[in-house]
Amino acid sequence: MKYFIIIFLIGPILSLTSASAQTPDEIFSWLPEVKGWDKPAFKEVFNADNLFDRINGAAPLFIENGFQEMTACDYTKGDDYITIQVYRHATPEDAFGMYASERSSDLMFYEIGGEAHGDNSSLFFFAGPVYVKIRSSVSGEETGEAMREIAGTLAYKVAPDAGYPMIIKSFPEENKIPHTEAYITSNYIGHEFLNKVFVCQYNKNGLTYQLFVISAENNDAAKEILNKYFTFTKQPLEFGEGILLIKDRYNGDIPCLWKNQYLIGIFNENGESVPDAETILNKSSVVNLFGFRIIKSNKYLKYL
């Protein structure tokens, strides 16, 4: 069998936070006073019916990521402005997914909310169920500090314990490519039956690969996903929990593990195997985190 990397998860995985939905009035009231800038005097609120009027072609992706409403307002200083757009999503995972889909590794990263990135004219972060975009008409260190002050206050008010979703936190650190964590809501690697997928990019000795985890509603739902996948690949439908090799004619061989409600595996665009898989598995932080050990066997990986 080809080498591969998988992650095993045990126990229920909950949403990042149980914080209640933030209303536009609450968000507006949480905006801080910022020295040198006039606090917003009014706000605009957009929903799925009129979001297109504000952000045009980007609206469908937001709606796909559980968009609920967006609150917009401006700080002003003469003719200059700092625009705040607070997108509230159905779940913290949706907000994280939207943030990750627009993240740029060319910008600076900050410890604001679950994660923030930006420069001295823009800033983007997620916290709990909101994704926030801040942009200014001017650039400079003072403007950047003002935006980070606004962002820090909002992030703390929304979710003081904000962070990556628990599944993302459980991914192994070794060989991880920083800031590549993501949440794909639908059509992962082109398949309509692969939805709500947590992913992260890795590189080992020049070989890039992607770990993925799907947390289905239950064991039967996970099996149904595999049934659809094996039907697509024309592989036998007689399989059980454990290690499986999906022979995807468009995406290469995809080894995965099915256990309970979880489908975990690795995707490499060229179908290449990853060396030293068993060693990497035993070093994986997720093994210890969920109390599950994988030991080396002569011919296969044995689960205890």
**Strand order within the widest beta sheet:** 1-2-3-7-6-5-4
Sequence of secondary-structure elements? HEHHEEHEEEEHHEEEHEEEHHEE
If you average the pLDDT, what whole number results? 85
Amount of helix = 25-40%
In whole angstroms, the N-to-C terminal distance is 20 Å
Strand coverage percent: 25-35%
Q: Helical segment tally?
A: 9
Instruction: Supply Rg.
Output: 22 Å
Instruction: Note the main sheet.
Output: 7 strands, antiparallel
Content-based structural category: alpha+beta
Low-confidence stretches: 1-20, 281-304
Number of strands: 15
Secondary structure topology:
Elements: H1 24-29, E1 44-47, H2 51-55, H3 59-64, E2 67-77, E3 80-89, H4 92-102, E4 108-110, E5 115-118, E6 122-127, E7 130-136, H5 141-158, H6 166-170, E8 182-184, E9 197-204, E10 207-215, H7 219-233, E11 242-248, E12 252-259, E13 262-267, H8 277-283, H9 285-289, E14 294-295, E15 302-303
Antiparallel strand pairs: 1-2, 2-3, 3-7, 4-5, 5-6, 6-7, 8-9, 9-10, 10-13, 11-12, 12-13, 14-15
What can you see in these coordinates?
This protein has helices spanning 24-29, 51-55, 59-64, 92-102, 141-158, 166-170, 219-233, 277-283, 285-289; strands at 44-47, 67-77, 80-89, 108-110, 115-118, 122-127, 130-136, 182-184, 197-204, 207-215, 242-248, 252-259, 262-267, 294-295, 302-303. With 304 residues, the chain is an alpha+beta fold. The chain has nine helices and 15 strands. The longest helix is centred in the middle third of the chain and has 18 residues, at 141-158. The strands form three sheets. It has a seven-stranded antiparallel beta sheet with strand order 1-2-3-7-6-5-4. The protein has a six-stranded antiparallel beta sheet with strand order 8-9-10-13-12-11. Helices cover 26% and strands 30% of the residues.
